[in-house]
Amino acid sequence: MRAGLREVAANANYRGGELDLVMLDGSGRDGPTLVFVEVRYRQSGAFGGGAASVDVGKRRKLVYAAQSFLGQHRQYSNFPCRFDVVEADGDPQAPRINWLRDAFRADDI
User: Fold this and answer.
1) How many CB atoms lie within 10 A of CB 92?
2) Which end of the chain is more exposed for a tag (fewer CB within 10 A), N or C?
3) What is the pTM of this model?
4) What is the DSSP string of 5-60?
């Protein structure tokens, strides 16, 4: 599930929310990008997929948690940032995975 990314942190908790994964994507032309990854599992897509469950309220919490992370880890404060969503559904032993790169932007919130 790493998709060429290197893990920086997992399950980082802040007062405003939790960051499932914080990853470093070194594939960019202009240097590394810090990637905040929200992982959503749904057994069924009947009520929308995992990405649909990342509504405006959840996005605000993720942005706030990312800001808190950057405040505590100043070595990343000048890195470009991206928010991805990984949605998984179906059999928990062999889920279907869909990685939505750049699923939303902090300035859209």
Assistant:
1) 9
2) N
3) 0.88
4) -EEEEEEEEETTEEEEEEEEE---TTS-EEEEEEEEEES-STT--TGGG--HHHHH
Tokens of 14: 């802040």
Q: Which two three-digit tokens encode residue 31?
A: 């240097």
98 has which bridge partners?
Answer: 87
Domains of the chain: 6-108 (3.40.1350.10)
In angstroms, the Cα distances linking 79 to 37, 38, 41, 90 are 16, 19, 29, 35
Under 8 Å between Cβ of 17 and 64: yes
